[in-house]
Amino acid sequence: MAYEDAHKLLRRNRELSILNAIAEALNRSIDLPQALESVLRLAAELLDLRAGWVWLLDETTGEPHLAAAQFLPPALTNEPERMTGSCYCLDTFRQGDLTGAANVNVVTCSRLKALVDGTDGLRYHASIPIYSHTDKLGVMNVASTDWRELDADDLRLLYTIGYQLGIAVERARLYARSAQAAKVEERNRLAREIHDTLAQGLTAISLQLESADALIDESPARAKDKVRKALDLARLNLEEARRSVLDLRAAPLLDRSLPEAIRALVDQIARERGLPIDVRVDGGLERLPGRIEAGVYRIVQEALNNAARHSGARRAAVDLVDTGAGLRVSIADDGRGFDPGATTRGFGLTGMRERAHLLGGTLDIDSAPGRGTRIVLVVPS
Questions:
Q1: pLDDT band per the 50, 70, 90 thresholds, residue 320
Q2: Same domain, 150 and 296
């Protein structure tokens, strides 16, 4: 009896270590293919398996596609068409007959069944359903050369792994939807900014030209000065419109984390404006909701552009800190500064405050003439 109890305890500890290792692999990355491949690799190592692959159903069409694979035999890697289309386990899953641990079982793989060479001895695999609540997400197949009939403990462990995968897949899809929604929101905001910026600029140009028209007969010199000011305003607003259009078209956060995107921005400003900018990152900032990343990036971009264009700064710095309760971003420069109570510094500062408000955060501006500027953004988690 004591031996059986010790054996059960050892097995339970091993199962927990496997599940913990897989949970850590899933939590390390929001890149779904990378996370799935990590799980397959760990499952192969920890469960003494030979190969594994994951099918996911397309959210729109419901058709299966190969989302990840590890250690496939040559017969499948050399003929990738064998890993397309449906099969027995996928058909069973989509028909609703592969719904729980009792149905996770060993089946003959229809993709390997008729092959002689290049299978590495593989003939069978276990099919583990992947669900999110009652939504069918896909199937994980794990294969070995010496499959025995799976007992209740095997089934429970494999089904728990499938449950973990379901959570990871749903989380990745929610993150992707959030990122897409953030892009749409950001594009709409930039479109409004372009409209407002152009409206303000054209109003200022019109006022200068109206003044020039009124002065042209009695004071040609003063009229000429007004025309020059109108031209300067036109050039300034043209440059601003071009920058806004580039921001609208560009995707600075595509395939980048927030720190990576900000470092790329800093490099660009240093090249174009000659302003050295230090970037410091404290804490894990690799996984933030898309709308947060987009909003923070635009605030940092506007603050650095102001420092490079208007402040006469010789250096600037950006600090990104994961406080545990949220994100704290500080943008500082050693420029000429200004009185925050006396001016709004144009539309840019207004836009930063509005973005901070939409993120549920706060934006504090510490500046004075002659002592530089520090802008601190705090966004709760």
A1: very high
A2: no
